[in-house]
Write a structure and sequence with these properties.
5-stranded mixed beta sheet, 9 helices, binds magnesium ion, disordered N terminus, 4-stranded antiparallel beta sheet, Heat Shock Protein 90, rod-shaped, binds adenosine-5'-diphosphate, Beta-Lactamase, about 550 residues, 11 strands, disordered C terminus
Length: about 550
C-alpha cells in the first residue's frame, strides 16, 4: 500500500459555499433550520402583504373621499338650481321641499342659504358635530338669468367615508393575516415532511458512517437534491465497506506474513549463529596455524643461523684439527725414535719447529673460533630472545652477515654492506635481525630466482633526529604492481608449493611497525630489482610493545606503509 495517510482519520472538510459558521452559526443554533425557514417565509409573506394592504386601504380611502366630494358638488349644484326661483322671488317656501330633501341626507351637517340682498340667512339648517368629526364644505353662488341672487353653503361629514375605509382596511388585513397563517402552516407541513425528516434521517445515517457502522443501507425514495445526497452517501458507505474489508484482509495477510517473516528471521538467525560459531572455530584454527607458522619461521631463521655458525666454525676448527693430527703424527714418530734410541738431534729440532708452528696455527684457529663463538653468542641470544639493548648498527649487521654468509658464499651472490659507524640503537636486535635476514633471503629466493648472480646492497643513514633509514636493495627480477600491492598480506606468496608461506613480509611488517616503532615501504618494478626501505627510531618505543608472534597485519595492507 502506498497511501501513507491512516484510512480512518476524519478529514477536515471544506465548508460548503455560503456557510459562514461564525456569523450564521449562532442563528442556526438558536432557531434550527426549520424555524429559520419558517421565519423567512413569514417575513417574506408578511412584509409585502402588509405593504399591499396598506396601499389598498389608502386607495379605498382616497376613492371614498373623491366620492364624497362628487356627492358634495352634485348636492350643491342641485340645491343651487332649485333655490334660484325662491331667491329671485324672495319666497323661501318655494325652495323648501328641495332643501328638506337634501338635508335628509345624514352626511349633511350644515346647509346655509344667503340672500344677496338681505343680511340674514335665507335658510340655515345645521346638525351638531360629533367629537373628532371632520367636514368638507362647498359654497356656490346662485345665479338668476346670469345675475347672482344669493349663495348656498353646504358641509358634508367625512365620518361615514372614513368608517367605510377603515372597514375595508380591516378586511384587507384579515385577509392578509389569514393567507399568511395558511401559508405558514403549509410551509411547516412541507418542510417537516420534505426537508426536516429526511435531513434527520441523513444525519443519523452519517452518524452511522462516522461510527463505521456500515451494514444498514442509506436510501431515500426521492430524486431531488436530498435524494441525490442520499445516493452519494450510500455510494460512500459501499466504498467504505469495501475498503474496510480489503483493509482487514490485507491486515490479516500482513499479520500472517509478519508471522512467517519472524519464523524466517529466527531460522536465519539460528543459521547465522551456527555459521558464526563455525567461523570463530575456523578463525581460532587459523590463528593457531598462524602462530605455528610464525614460530616455524623463527625456528627456520634460527636453523639458518646455526647452520651459518657451524659453517663458520668449521674452517678454524678444521684447520686446528688437521694441525693437531699432524702434530700427533710427528709426536708418534718422535716417540718411536726415542724408544728405539735412534733419535737424532736434527730430528728433534725438526719436530720442535713443526710443533711450534703447528701450535701457533692451532692457537690462531682456536682463537678465531673462540672469537666467533663470542660473536655468535650475542646473535644467538638476540635471535632466541626479544631482549632490548643498546647496540651499534654496523657491528650488529656485520655479526648478522656472518650467520647469513653460508647462504651467499657458495654462489656468485654478493652482499655489499655500507653501514656508517656510531648509529647506536636502543632497540630489539633479535627482531631487527629477523627482519634483515628475511629481506636478504627474499632477495636471494625471489629476486635472484633463475639467475646465477646478483647483488644486495645494505645501507643505512641517519635521516632525521633519531630516525635511521635502512635500505635493503637487490638487482633481481623485481615485481609487478599487483604483487607489490599484496606482498605484506599474510599468506601472499608467488612461490606457493615451492617453499613459500607468504608470511615472511607480513612478519617483517608486523615487527617494523610494532616492536621497532618504524615504517616500511617498497620500491620495485619488473626487471628493476627491489628496494625495501625501513625507517626506524634509534629508540624503540617503550611500554607494552607487541611481540614478534602477535597478530599479523590485516589483509590487503598497502605496500607503501
Ligand atoms: N626481493 C624481492 N624480489 C622480488 N619479489 C619479492 C622480493 N621479496 C618479496 N617478493 C615477493 O613477495 C612475496 C611475499 O614474500 P614473503 O612474504 O616473504 O613470502 P614468501 O617468501 O614465503 O613467498 C614473494 O612471494 C615474492 O613474490
Ligand atoms: Mg619470504
Amino acid at each position: 500500500m502506498t497511501n501513507a495517510s491512516p484510512p480512518f482519520q476524519p478529514s477536515t472538510e471544506q465548508a460548503p459555499p455560503g456557510a459562514a459558521p461564525g456569523r450564521a452559526g449562532w442563528l442556526e443554533r438558536l432557531f434550527g433550520l426549520r424555524m429559520l425557514i419558517m421565519l423567512a417565509v413569514a417575513f417574506g409573506l408578511a412584509v409585502p402583504g402588509w405593504l399591499v394592504a396598506l396601499q389598498e386601504a389608502k386607495a379605498i380611502e382616497k376613492e371614498n373621499m373623491l366620492q364624497l366630494q362628487t356627492d358634495l358638488q352634485q348636492l350643491t349644484e342641485l340645491g343651487a338650481e332649485s333655490l334660484r326661483e325662491a331667491l329671485w322671488q324672495i319666497y323661501p317656501e318655494l325652495g323648501e321641499p328641495i332643501i328638506q330633501a337634501i338635508f335628509r341626507d345624514p352626511r349633511v351637517k350644515l346647509m346655509r342659504v344667503q340672500d344677496s340682498r338681505g343680511s340674514k340667512p335665507f335658510f340655515e339648517h345645521q346638525r351638531p358635530l360629533e367629537v373628532g368629526e371632520a367636514v368638507i364644505s362647498l359654497k356656490r353662488e346662485v345665479l338668476y338669468q346670469g345675475r347672482p341672487v344669493g349663495s348656498l353653503e353646504l358641509s358634508l361629514s367625512t365620518l361615514q367615508a372614513s368608517q367605510r375605509a377603515e372597514a375595508a382596511q380591516r378586511g384587507i388585513l384579515l385577509r392578509t393575516a389569514l393567507s399568511l397563517a395558511s401559508s405558514l402552516l403549509l410551509a411547516f407541513i412541507v418542510l417537516q415532511w420534505r426537508l426536516v425528516r429526511p435531513i434527520e434521517y441523513l444525519k443519523r445515517a452519517s452518524g452511522r458512517l462516522a461510527r463505521q457502522a456500515l451494514d444498514e443501507p442509506i436510501h431515500l425514495q426521492r430524486s431531488d437534491e436530498l435524494g441525490q445526497l442520499a445516493q452519494s452517501m450510500e455510494a460512500t458507505r459501499v466504498a467504505l465497506a469495501r475498503a474496510f474489508s480489503e483493509l482487514t484482509a490485507s491486515q490479516q495477510a500482513l499479520r500472517e506474513h509478519a508471522g512467517g517473516l519472524e519464523l524466517r528471521v529466527a531460522e536465519r538467525t539460528r543459521e547465522l549463529e551456527e555459521s558464526n560459531l563455525h567461523l570463530s572455530e575456523v578463525i581460532n584454527n587459523l590463528s593457531r596455524a598462524q602462530s605455528e607458522l610464525i614460530e616455524a619461521d623463527r625456528l627456520a631463521s634460527l636453523g639458518r643461523m646455526v647452520a651459518g655458525i657451524a659453517h663458520e666454525l668449521n674452517t678454524p676448527l678444521g684447520s686446528s684439527l688437521t694441525m693437531v693430527s699432524t702434530l700427533l703424527d710427528h709426536h708418534r714418530s718422535l716417540s718411536r725414535a726415542v724408544g728405539q734410541a735412534a733419535l737424532r738431534r736434527s730430528q728433534l729440532d725438526e719436530f720442535l719447529a713443526t710443533l711450534g708452528e703447528g701450535l701457533h696455527i692451532a692457537e690462531r684457529n682456536v682463537n678465531r673460533a673462540v672469537e666467533m663463538v663470542d660473536k655468535f653468542r650475542q646473535v644467538a641470544v638476540d635471535q632466541t630472545s626479544e631482549q632490548r639493548r643498546r647496540f651499534d648498527l654496523a657491528v650488529f649487521m656485520a655479526e648478522l652477515q656472518l650467520t647469513l654468509s653460508p647462504n651467499f658464499k657458495r654462489s656468485a651472490y654478493t652482499v655489499h654492506v655500507a653501514i656508517p659507524p656510531d648509529l647506536i640503537f636502543d632497540s630489539y636486535p633479535g627482531p631487527l635481525g629477523q627482519v634483515i635476514s628475511n629481506l636478504e633471503l627474499n632477495a636471494l629466493v625471489h629476486g635472484f630466482d633463475g639467475r646465477s648472480s646478483g647483488n644486495i646492497w645494505l645501507s643505512a643513514a641517519l635521516v632525521d633526529d633519531g630516525m635511521v633509514r635502512i635500505s635493503v636493495r637487490d638487482d633481481g627480477v623485481g615485481m609487478s604492481a599487483t604483487v607489490r600491492e599484496h606482498i605484506f598480506d599474510p599468506f601472499f606468496t608467488t612461490r606457493l608449493g615451492r617453499g613459500g608461506s607468504g608470511l615472511g613480509l607480513a612478519i617483517v611488517y608486523n615487527i617494523v611497525t610494532g616492536m621497532l616503532g618504524g615504517r616500511i615501504s617498497v620500491n620495485s618494478q619488473p626487471e628493476q630489482g627491489a628496494e625495501f626501505v625501513l625507517e626506524l627510531p634509534l629508540h624503540a618505543p617503550t611500554g607494552d610493545a607487541p611481540t614478534r608472534s602477535e597478530a599479523l597485519p590485516p589483509l590487503s595492507q598497502t605496500s607503501d606503509c
